[in-house]
Amino acid sequence: xxxxxxxxxxxxxxxxxxxxxxxxxxxxxxxxxxxxxxxxxxxxxxxxxxxxxxxxxxxxxxxxxxxxxxxxxxxxxxxxxxxxxxxxxxxxxxxxxxxxxxxxxxxxxxxxxxxxxxxxxxxxxxxxxxxxxxxxxxxxxxxxxxxxxxxxxxxxxxxxxx
Length: 162
Prior knowledge:
The chain is an all-alpha fold and about 160 residues long. Helices cover about 70% and strands about 0% of the residues. The protein has helices spanning about 10-40, 45-70, 80-85, 90-135. It is elongated and about 85 Å long.
C-alpha cells in the first residue's frame, strides 16, 4: 500500500531542479571536451567558472533531497530514494524524472572521466615541452658557476691582465 506524503512536492521540485542542473552540467562538460580536443585552452576558464556554479547548485540540491528523505524516515541514498518513491502515492512522475536524473548523471560522469584523460594528456605534453626547453645539458653551458668557460674545445692559454 502506497503512503501519502506531504513532502512529495518538495522532493518532486528538488529532483526536477537537480535534473535541470545536471543536464546543464553535462552540456558544459561536453563543451569542455570539445575545447580540450580542439586545443582551445582559452575557453576553459569560463567553462570552469560555469562548472563551479553548477557543482555548488547540485551539491545544495542534493542536500535538500537527502534532508527530505531523512525527514521521511528513509536512507539518504539512491536506495532510499527508490524506496521513498515506491511508498508514495502519485510518485510516477517524480520517479520518471529521478531515472532521467540518474541517466544524465552517468553521462556527465563519463564526460568528466574523458575530460580528465584529455587534461592529463595536455599536462603531459606541456611537461615534455618544458623539459625540452629547460634541459640541463652540460655541453650547452658555456660558463660554470665560477664564471669560467666550461667549453673544452677552446685551446691555448688563458690570459691574465696585469
